Write a sequence for this structure.
């Protein structure tokens, strides 16, 4: 053996190790690779997004792009390079609050080959996947551009939907086939993938729409999936039971025009009545038309790039949450109690028939998988003072109920809830978080159709109460309490809608209105956070996002606890626990980068718990944030006007982070249509 060579090698290795150690931050807690005591940190990751074109043809080099061809330069010019998520409602109070999750995107463009296209379009025509379908009322409206009883199609459309060549395709089976066959287009299973589909330019084309025909309300069994307003041009994000994660969303402009964005109306620029043109995507055959409709002068490639950025990436793949996932930083709860208050109107539907408490708990617990869930429930009559504050909530004028408050209609109900919550916490064990849920089961049609809302504290943007509403009209339409309450509790635990959100590079908040009307197709994904009533649970995109938020929350709350330890001069007491926790967070980052977000959150939770326990054992005061005790001037419930939220009554795009309404009149009309 050459001992001299070995000595040189060992010396080099020692010097390299010394250099690497120099790069690891030295703190009072030792050399830490992941933890940064006292710092709000961000977990940055490179995220690959595959964009697969099925049935589209790429523009030939040197030639102008035609209306239905794809030029990837349109995508390069439109797609974001990065995304930096924010807690949206806390940020609307004047200080942008990061979640601690950010992304650098790597895009992969793929044009499916002929064999893949042939197999896919053969698959969607099989009897197990599709069936002949009569025209829906909305498809007839497209043909007529108005009155669906016309005998001659409107003259300003390029092609009418043919009732004799029309099918409805199972959206979930289509998504699953595309997910199961990603390897055929060179994509690794489990990666984020957008499929842009065009059947129109093939000889075997059939007019078609997608649907979830089996989708029903949990409580009433009403088949929302059969409604013509719920026909689809897109779907994805389903979480398959006992199967690897699939992260696929498809979008098909060759499908019959989308009713959810009013693409059935290609004549009128303004479809929601706000006197602003609404940008939406017509069916593929209207692109490049010379007819007088919204397809005139349009090319599909730039439009698909808009869909990729503002719907798929910003709202589905890497969205910003509406609230903090941490709930009670820096000590996050061990137990979450769903504190259900059923406020029962005389003669209203039997609560047992419109609320499944077991399903409620089972469905929401996946959003906080390391906490123990339990539930308490009480039923009281919707009368007296409670009825008064409930009626105030739907007040229509600023001199109603609480004229001196910023929230003139909701303030009395909020104060009522705060008073009850403070009493509840007097007997609540330490480490338990009460999630207050109020279900107003009204026997009268006291309001115009609001199903629910997840309230904040009116000062810091911290989540406070969940309200769900049921009236005879809503019940008759098909709604119960279970699905609404899962949706609103999803908000409380952090999740946003898939139709509104934030673009961090451009620093704009936007929703389905004006230039961004087309993003309502975000609802065409597998999540109960949608408005189209086609999903009962949280989908894969929801779970990915939540587990990323939790991983960052555990990291940053651990950093906060270490700062408390430092101030208490207890560093020596927690030293070994911190080093072990740091190793856990390093492992968590590896899993995070590999898209194993639940595994990352699990390791981050273990690291966080080890530091929290060591700090408490050392006598360091680590306390959970209690929003109901920290309201400015709320002592004795004598409240002054608090911080002013940047709230928008519409979904109009705006600079900065704003809070959007639970729904607009236009959305409500759409949701309550069949």
């Amino acid at each position: 053996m050459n001992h001299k060579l070995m000595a040189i090698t060992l010396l080099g290795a020692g010097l390299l190790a010394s250099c690497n150690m120099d790069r690891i931050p030295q703190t009072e807690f030792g050399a830490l690779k992941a933890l940064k005591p006292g710092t709000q940190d961000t977990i940055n990751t490179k995220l690959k997004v595959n964009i697969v074109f099925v049935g589209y043809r790429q523009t030939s080099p040197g030639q102008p792009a035609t209306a239905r061809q794809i030029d990837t330069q349109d995508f390069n010019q439109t797609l974001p390079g990065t995304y930096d998520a924010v807690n949206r409602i806390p940020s609307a109070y004047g200080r942008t609050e990061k979640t601690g999750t950010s992304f650098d995107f790597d895009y992969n463009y793929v044009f499916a080959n002929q064999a893949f296209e042939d197999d896919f379009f053969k698959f969607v025509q099989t009897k197990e996947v599709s069936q002949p379908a009569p025209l829906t009322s909305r498809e007839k409206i497209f043909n007529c551009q108005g009155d669906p009883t016309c005998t001659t199609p409107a003259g300003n459309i390029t092609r009418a939907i043919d009732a004799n060549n029309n099918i409805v395709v199972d959206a979930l089976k289509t998504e699953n086939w595309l997910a199961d066959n990603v390897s055929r287009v060179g994509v690794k299973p489990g990666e984020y993938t957008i499929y842009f589909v065009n059947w129109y330019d093939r000889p075997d084309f059939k007019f078609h729409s997608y649907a979830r025909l089996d989708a029903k309300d949990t409580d009433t069994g009403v088949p929302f999936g059969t409604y013509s307003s719920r026909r689809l041009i897109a779907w994805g994000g389903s979480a398959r039971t006992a199967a690897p994660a699939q992260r696929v969303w498809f979008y098909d402009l060759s499908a019959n025009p989308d009713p959810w964005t009013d693409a059935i109306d290609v004549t009128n620029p303004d479809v929601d009545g706000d006197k602003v043109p609404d940008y939406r995507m017509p069916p593929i055959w209207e692109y490049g038309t010379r007819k007088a409709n919204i397809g005139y002068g349009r090319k599909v490639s730039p439009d698909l790039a808009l869909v990729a950025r503002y719907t798929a990436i910003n709202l589905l793949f890497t969205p910003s949450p509406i609230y903090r996932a941490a709930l009670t930083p820096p000590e996050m709860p061990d137990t979450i109690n769903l504190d259900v208050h059923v406020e029962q109107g005389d003669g209203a539907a039997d609560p047992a028939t419109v609320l499944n408490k077991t399903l409620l708990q089972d469905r929401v617990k996946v959003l906080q998988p390391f906490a123990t869930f339990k539930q308490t429930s009480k039923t009281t009559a919707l009368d007296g003072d409670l009825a008064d504050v409930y009626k105030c909530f739907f007040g229509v004028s600023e001199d109603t109920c609480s004229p001196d408050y910023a929230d003139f209609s909701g303030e009395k109900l909020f104060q009522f809830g705060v008073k009850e919550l403070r009493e509840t916490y007097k007997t609540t064990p330490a480490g338990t978080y009460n999630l207050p849920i109020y279900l107003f089961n009204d026997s009268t049609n006291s309001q115009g159709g609001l199903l629910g809302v997840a309230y904040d504290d009116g000062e810091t943007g911290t989540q406070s109460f969940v309200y769900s509403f049921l009236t005879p009209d809503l019940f008759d339409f098909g709604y119960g309490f279970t699905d609404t309450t899962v949706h609103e509790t999803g908000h409380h635990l952090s999740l946003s809608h898939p139709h509104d959100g934030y673009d961090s590079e451009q620093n704009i908040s936007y929703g389905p209105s004006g230039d961004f009307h087309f993003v309502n197709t975000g609802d065409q994904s597998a999540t109960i956070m949608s408005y189209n009533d086609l999903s009962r649970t949280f989908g894969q995109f929801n779970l990915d996002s939540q587990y990323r938020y939790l991983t960052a929350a555990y990291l940053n709350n651990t950093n906060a606890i270490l700062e408390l330890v430092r101030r208490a001069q207890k560093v020596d007491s927690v030293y070994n626990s911190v080093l072990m926790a740091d190793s856990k967070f390093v492992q968590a980052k590896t899993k995070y980068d590999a898209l194993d977000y639940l595994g990352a959150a699990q390791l981050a939770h273990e690291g966080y718990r080890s530091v929290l326990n060591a700090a408490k054992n050392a006598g360091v005061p680590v306390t959970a944030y209690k929003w109901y005790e920290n309201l400015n001037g709320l002592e004795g419930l004598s409240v002054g006007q608090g911080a002013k939220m940047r709230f928008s009554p519409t979904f109009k795009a705006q600079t900065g982070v704003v809070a959007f309404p639970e729904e607009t009149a236009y959305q409500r009309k759409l949701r309550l249509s069949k």
Q: What stands out?
A: The chain has 17 helices and 21 strands. The two ends are 83 Å apart (CA to CA). The first strand starts at residue 26 and ends at 27. The mean pLDDT is 93.
